[in-house]
């Protein structure tokens, strides 16, 4: 390897926020994810695409150990966040999930006020010393969730009373309130109308300045709009991982090409 290529490779490796090596996932006897290797870059949006059932959500859930909550699920392999093994015995999954936050398909605000939805995480993780501190965190998080202006005058009202798009932005605010480094999003726009989808996509683009964002999406247009890197999964394997424009304009694998041209999936 010439020096230049070596330097490029080194830069790429040190830029990785998460590295996954030889990850396999089983649900009882079903081998759902096979030998996945991937590097998730920092301050970048990475999209996971692929046909239904190919393992996108399963792999996403590996990244903050949400699969631990599924009894029949077993994960093997190595996943590192900033070079530390997230599955090490010393790692508390609750702490990990504060660092690697998650936003789900269906907006799921707690049955609490808008304020308390956002304050919940900082409270349980002891991030605020006083009520004034907490107020600052709540406002900052709602601003990051691009929903502050819409809710600032009704912080004591229930989060469940907001529109679907507002609820999803509230859930994003809640996820960023614990100062995560990575945000995982599992089809975050699938329950939203086109206007709310556009708002959340705009927000994702903002969020990548501060976080590493990983998004599972069924929409190739969405992957193309919001992500810089894309991973294509098929039948439990990671078929191809590359810059998003390469995946969509010059796929290297025939399965990727079939998927993006609508022949499979
Ligand atoms: N909790 C579970 N128990 C048993 N099997 C599961 C569970 N969750 C997922 N699976 C199986 O694992 C495989 C991968 O599912 P996964 O939900 O990760 O795919 P996906 O690509 O995210 O699909 P979709 O796009 O439809 O959401 C599928 O065969 C699915 O049936």
From TrEMBL:
Protein known as: Phosphate import ATP-binding protein PstB
Gene3D superfamilies: P-loop containing nucleotide triphosphate hydrolases (3.40.50.300)
Broad class of the protein's primary localization: membrane
Record's keyword terms, sorted: ATP-binding, Cell membrane, Hydrolase, Membrane, Nucleotide-binding, Phosphate transport, Plasmid, Translocase, Transport
Compartments, as annotated in UniProt: Cell inner membrane
Protein EC: 3.6.3.27
Record gene name: pstB
GO terms under cellular component: plasma membrane
Signal peptide range: none
Entry annotated with the keyword Chloroplast: no
Pfam families assigned: ABC_tran (PF00005)
Organism of derivation: Pseudosulfitobacter pseudonitzschiae
Membrane topology summary: Peripheral membrane protein
Task performed by this protein: Part of the ABC transporter complex PstSACB involved in phosphate import. Responsible for energy coupling to the transport system.
GO-annotated molecular function: ATP binding; ATP hydrolysis activity; phosphate transmembrane transporter activity
GO biological processes: phosphate ion transmembrane transport
SUPFAM superfamilies: P-loop containing nucleoside triphosphate hydrolases (SSF52540)
Domain of life: Bacteria
Domain ABC transporter: 18-260
């Amino acid at each position: 390897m010439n020096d230049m290529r070596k330097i490029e490779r080194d830069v790429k490796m040190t830029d990785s926020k998460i590295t996954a090596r030889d990850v396999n996932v089983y649900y009882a006897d079903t081998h759902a994810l096979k030998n996945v290797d991937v590097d998730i870059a920092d301050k970048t949006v990475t999209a996971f695409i692929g046909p239904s059932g190919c393992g996108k959500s399963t792999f996403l859930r590996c990244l903050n150990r949400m699969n631990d909550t599924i009894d029949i699920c077993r994960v093997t392999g190595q996943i590192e966040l900033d070079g530390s093994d997230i599955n090490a015995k010393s790692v508390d999954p609750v702490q990990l999930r504060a660092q690697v936050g998650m936003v789900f398909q269906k907006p799921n605000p707690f049955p609490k006020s808008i304020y308390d939805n956002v304050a919940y995480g900082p409270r349980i993780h002891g991030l605020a010393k006083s009520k004034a501190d907490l107020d600052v965190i709540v406002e900052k998080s709602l601003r990051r969730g691009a929903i502050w202006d819409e809710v600032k005058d009704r912080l004591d009202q229930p989060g469940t009373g907001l529109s679907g798009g507002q609820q999803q932005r509230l859930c994003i605010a809640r996820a960023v309130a614990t100062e995560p480094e990575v945000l995982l999003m599992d089809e975050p726009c699938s329950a939203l109308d086109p206007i709310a989808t556009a708002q959340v996509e705009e927000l994702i683009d903002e969020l990548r300045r501060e976080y590493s964002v990983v998004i599972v999406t069924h929409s190739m247009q969405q992957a193309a709009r919001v992500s810089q890197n894309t991973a294509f999964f098929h039948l439990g394997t990671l078929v191809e991982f590359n810059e998003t424009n390469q995946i969509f304009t010059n796929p290297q694998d025939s399965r990727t090409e079939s998927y993006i041209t609508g022949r499979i999936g």
